[in-house]
Amino acid sequence: MNRLKSLREKKNMKQSELGKLLNVKESAISKYESEKVPLTADTLIKLSNIFNVSIDYLLGREDIERHGPKDGNIDRYGLDGSVITDILDYPTAEEKATNFSHQLALQMNINGDSLTDVAKFIGVTDEIVWEWLTEQRKDYSDYYNKLSEYFRVDPSYWTSPCAVSPGLEPTTQEYFLLMKYRFQNQPNLKKYIPIEDFFPNCHELSESELKWLNCFRQLNEDNQDIIIGEAKKFLKEQRLDSVAADEPLKKTGTDKLGK
């Protein structure tokens, strides 16, 4: 037997909510709980992390749960950023983190922070942060300042449509790539927002960069794709030239872009 249903109901979690955490349909959870479909090793590991119980407990091989209250929080939420992004299937690339939950998970992943570390600093329970990450509650705006202090980002990071992590210094070509992803992932993005407000925490944009980026966002998708293709080519040539000149390439924090 498996104890998935009892664990889920104990946390007042709907099948659809658990399905979202596992990145499967609600019907799959029903089949798991009725044992019509066996739990795979990967799913068991994710469930073990979500409910903080052993795999043996999930499968009914032992009767003792491992989780319990600690300092007013819940042990099962003491997960670090890399585990959280894996469980929730959230992006770890700057250009694809386009909402608060993704941005929070990304910053935790970059810093190697645990959920408990974040919760303790801002003065809330682990469960509240977990519900922010899983998009079950939306009251995080009251904590933008504390979150900004913890992660050392400007408060606008959490609300700007094109925010990226602080300290990045993208090239113009890399800005093109970032903007392309933002437009794809946020179709309702207001394109009249000043370019300099798109990327808080980045280095100051030059007049030339502002001109190119403003032109780029006015293009239709097909023409943007052409520019992206050229940008990737120039980035590759630039890296090859730098290697040939035996000069270390400046780290921008966007090395994965365009790959």
Structure report:
Helices cover 50% and strands 2% of the residues. The chain has 259 residues and is mainly alpha-helical. The radius of gyration is 22 Å and the shape is elongated. It has 13 helices and 2 strands. Strand 1 and strand 2 form a beta hairpin. It has a two-stranded antiparallel ribbon. It starts with a helix and ends in a 15-residue tail after the last helix.
Strand content: under 5%
Number of helices: 13
- In one word, what is the shape? elongated
Order of helices and strands: HHHHHEEHHHHHHHH
Helix content: 40-55%
User: Which structural class do the helices and strands define?
Assistant: mainly alpha
How much is the average pLDDT?
75
Adjacency order of strands in the biggest sheet: 1-2
Number of strands: 2
Major beta-sheet overview: 2 strands, antiparallel
Provide the gyration radius in Å.
22 Å
* Termini Cα gap: 45 Å
Unreliable segments of 5+ consecutive residues: 67-76, 247-259
For the structure shown, list the relevant keywords.
mainly alpha; 2% strand; single chain; elongated; 259 residues; 13 helices
Short description:
Helices cover 50% and strands 2% of the residues.
Helix-strand layout with pairing:
Blueprint: H1 4-10, H2 15-22, H3 26-33, H4 41-51, H5 55-58, E1 69-70, E2 73-74, H6 81-87, H7 100-111, H8 115-122, H9 126-133, H10 144-151, H11 172-185, H12 207-217, H13 221-244
Antiparallel strand pairs: 1-2
Helix pairs in contact: 2-3, 6-7, 8-9, 11-12, 11-13
